[in-house]
């Protein structure tokens, strides 16, 4: 194991965090992790990482702290307070938050961390569980160029498309736009699936030919089997996409951008959640279209 590589603390070992941290271990990094579930800590240790008993313990010796948690409240909970990252990480450390949160939360975090001598990048990702496992994530970053350059080798072990989008909060803004496009895309695919099936067409053949033309997309490639098999095991949960649609509609209102179609899809995501489908993959937007089309699902 190379000793010249920065020591990494990883906070949050969920669907995305576990495979991402393991990719860093494979790349030769020393990774100390902390998360709430013991089995996730065991998984990290089995992969060659070190399990910590607290956030403070995980970050104390780290050169780089990476966080991957569900939403703004969790980022604030792990960053602030006596037991949080800012109080326990060493001065000069780099904090990379890869969660998808509000741009304002990222801006505030960078400001508060600066007072402690800690540098911050917001670096949310796109690509879902498959992208995390395969290390082909798209990583959109906000922050200082020098910090981005320093973090680049770490990002390269996690993803393929790595772009500095502007100052603090910019990564989150681009991520919000990403989630808008993905949700509208899944909704369009779901409507097409129901239309095709009700018309008696061979669905697998139809989706193949559609995906070869202008209607083709990464969404259709990644989610085609979910639609065909009605397999909604979560790669990215409706609950999280609901949170993200709230972020993008709120941020768009703040800057005076109209999202007419996005607003409709945000409501469809919310209705799916209200019907108890929040724990399913976002491709389950298909279930909402089926219900609207008269199916009992």
Automatic annotation (TrEMBL):
The answer to whether the entry has keyword Magnesium is no
User: Which ranges carry the 3-hydroxyisobutyrate dehydrogenase-like NAD-binding domain?
Assistant: 169-288
Pfam families, alphabetically? Answer: NAD_binding_11, NAD_binding_2
User: Which residue numbers delimit the 6-phosphogluconate dehydrogenase NADP-binding domain?
Assistant: 7-166
Q: Which SUPFAM superfamilies match?
A: 6-phosphogluconate dehydrogenase C-terminal domain-like, NAD(P)-binding Rossmann-fold domains
Q: What keyword terms does UniProt attach to this protein?
A: NAD, Oxidoreductase
Give the record's family classification. Belongs to the HIBADH-related family.
How is this protein named in the record?
A: Tartronate semialdehyde reductase
Annotated organism of origin: Streptomyces leeuwenhoekii
């Amino acid at each position: 194991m190379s000793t010249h590589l920065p020591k990494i603390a990883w906070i949050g070992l969920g669907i995305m965090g576990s495979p991402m941290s393991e990719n860093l271990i494979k790349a030769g990094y020393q990774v100390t992790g902390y998360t709430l579930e013991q089995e996730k800590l065991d998984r990290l240790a089995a992969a060659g990482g070190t399990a910590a008993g607290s956030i403070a313990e995980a970050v104390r010796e780290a050169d780089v702290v990476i966080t991957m948690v569900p939403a703004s409240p969790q980022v604030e909970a792990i960053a602030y307070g006596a037991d949080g990252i800012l109080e326990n990480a060493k001065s000069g450390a780099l904090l990379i938050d890869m969660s998808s949160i509000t741009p304002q939360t990222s801006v505030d975090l960078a400001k508060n961390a600066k007072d402690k001598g800690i540098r911050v990048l917001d670096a949310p990702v796109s690509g879902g569980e498959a992208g995390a496992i395969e290390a082909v994530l798209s990583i959109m970053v906000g922050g200082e160029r020098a910090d981005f350059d320093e973090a680049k080798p770490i990002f390269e072990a996690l993803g393929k498309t790595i772009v500095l989008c502007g100052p603090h909060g910019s990564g989150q803004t681009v991520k919000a736009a990403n989630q808008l496009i993905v949700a509208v895309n899944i909704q369009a695919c779901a409507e097409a699936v129901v239309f095709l099936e009700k018309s008696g067409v061979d669905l697998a053949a139809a989706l193949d030919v559609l995906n070869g033309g202008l209607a083709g997309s990464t969404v259709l490639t990644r989610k085609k089997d979910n639609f065909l098999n009605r397999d909604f095991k979560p790669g990215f949960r409706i609950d999280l996409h609901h949170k993200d649609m709230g972020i993008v509609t709120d941020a768009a209102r703040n800057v005076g951008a109209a999202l007419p179609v996005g607003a409709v899809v945000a409501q469809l995501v919310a209705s799916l959640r209200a019907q108890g489908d929040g724990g399913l993959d976002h491709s389950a937007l298909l279930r909402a279209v089926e219900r609207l089309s008269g199916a009992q699902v």
